[in-house]
Specification:
about 375 residues; binds flavin-adenine dinucleotide; alpha/beta; 4-stranded mixed beta sheet; globular; 5-stranded parallel beta sheet
Length: about 375
């Protein structure tokens, strides 16, 4: 059984960031990744995806995104950046290695993987959320004869030409996939069940994250109250478009409910010009479409579930108690947990950008892991 200072599970942005910071802290870390390359999830995102967060606030610790990249880099540039990041810090993950279980054995953690078991006093779980697409079902789901896919399986409009498509969910993936389909001339509707919040990608000429970061130390209620009139002006009257504005402001929504507001990159304009129709929540599916909460019935050839992800990390560490909430999400990310030496990075929804938060967490984890390693070596 191999032994080292730290095991990092996952070679996405969080795993790579932790590898760089933990190594810089003087610890020996290895990264185990089930795919055959770094940034596997970014490689399979839909074709038109660009970052919603700007380049200056989406880089990982120790290496900014190249200046040659546009303000909002493309998916392909994100993959290129992650490859360069791994090369720059000489991070060589062990690929095609799926960690099936993490367990404690005395003062060590054991990561059981298909390549064997590895032990270390520190383990960082950086497995993201993308492996747990949430697929709701409705009464009548079993009758529906069209295709139902999750947004994580969507690539581009090509398979949907000539079809009527219903996109379920008004998060960033739902909004952008509906936009992608509408721009390709496809008949598309968005099913929006709950009241929403919408942010422009830029406000007064600055990326929206600039404002979120500027106000990050103020209470959410205060920030939302101050911003409400400006946002109303920037976004316009969404009630005229069949949408309902959430009572909670965008920052409160993220902090209290973990729901990310839609950062609008053109979806609203296509709703305004009628290319994207807005419908309410789905009451049930029929053999060839959906019946909505207002009893309206429509025919759809395909349904795309932009309904997010619901990971349950208890499956990975079933014997570890006290670190997960009732949904199997870590109670604490980016800091020491109640299980000494066990860390989580990246399983967060942040009002100031997830990639930016990953960088902050990675640094905190490295500092904490270094202290933990020092306290262990000081033991008699
Ligand atoms: C469509 C979309 C757009 C986004 N756009 C932005 C944006 O613009 N800005 C932003 O800040 N954030 C954005 N995000 C959030 C984004 O997912 C995160 O910022 C970031 O990619 C998360 O990185 P991660 O390393 O935590 O997870 P991931 O990128 O999901 O990486 C996790 C890695 O762990 C591996 N893995 C999982 N389980 C195991 C296992 N058991 N054993 C071994 N390996 C394993 C996976 O194969 C994967 O490579 C977006 C998310 C989505 C879905």
């Amino acid at each position: 059984m191999r032994s080292l200072d730290a095991i990092i599970v996952g070679a996405g942005p969080a795993g790579l960031a932790c590898a760089a910071t933990i190594r810089a802290a003087g610890l020996d870390a290895t990264v185990l990744e089930k795919a055959d390359g770094v940034g596997a999830v970014w490689r399979r995102h839909y074709d038109r995806l660009h970052l919603h967060t700007d380049r200056n606030r989406s880089g990982l610790p120790g290496m900014a995104m190249p200046r040659a990249y546009p303000t909002y880099p493309s998916r392909a540039q994100m993959v290129e950046y992650l490859e360069s990041y791994a090369a720059r810090f000489d991070i060589k993950p062990v690929f095609n290695t799926t960690v099936s279980r993490i367990r404690r054995d005395g003062s060590q953690w054991i990561a059981e993987a298909n390549g064997g078991a590895i032990t270390a006093p520190v383990v960082v779980v950086a497995t993201g959320i993308a492996d747990a697409p949430y697929r709701p079902s409705w009464p009548g789901s079993e009758l529906y004869r069209g295709d139902i896919v999750h947004s994580s399986e969507y690539r581009n409009p090509a398979p949907y030409r000539g079809k009527r498509v219903l996109v379920v969910g008004f998060g960033n993936s739902g909004g952008e996939i509906a936009l992608d389909l509408a721009n390709a001339g496809i008949d598309v509707a968005l099913a929006v069940r709950s009241p929403v919040q919408i942010l422009p990608r830029e406000l007064l000429g600055f990326p929206i994250l600039t404002w979120a970061i500027l106000y990050r130390r103020l209470p959410a209620r205060v920030v939302d109250a101050v911003n409400a009139p400006i946002l109303r002006l920037a976004v316009g009257r969404i009630e005229d478009l069949g949408l309902r504005r959430a009572a909670k402001g965008p920052r409160q929504m993220v902090e209290e409910d973990g729901r990310v507001p839609l950062i609008d990159i053109g979806t609203l304009n296509r709703i305004r010009d009628g290319a994207i129709q807005v419908r309410g929540g789905i009451d049930r599916l029929t053999s060839d479409g959906a019946i909505f909460d207002d009893a309206r019935s429509e025919r759809y050839d395909a349904i795309i579930l932009a309904t997010g992800f619901r990971p349950d990390l208890r499956q990975l560490a079933p014997d570890v108690k006290g670190v997960f909430d009732n949904h199997g999400m870590p109670r604490v990310t980016g800091k020491a947990t109640d299980a000494p030496g066990l860390y989580f990075c990246g399983q967060i929804t942040s009002p100031t950008g997830q990639l930016r938060e990953i960088g902050i967490e990675a640094q905190q984890i490295a500092d904490s892991a270094k202290r933990y390693a020092a306290s262990r070596s000081a033991l008699p």
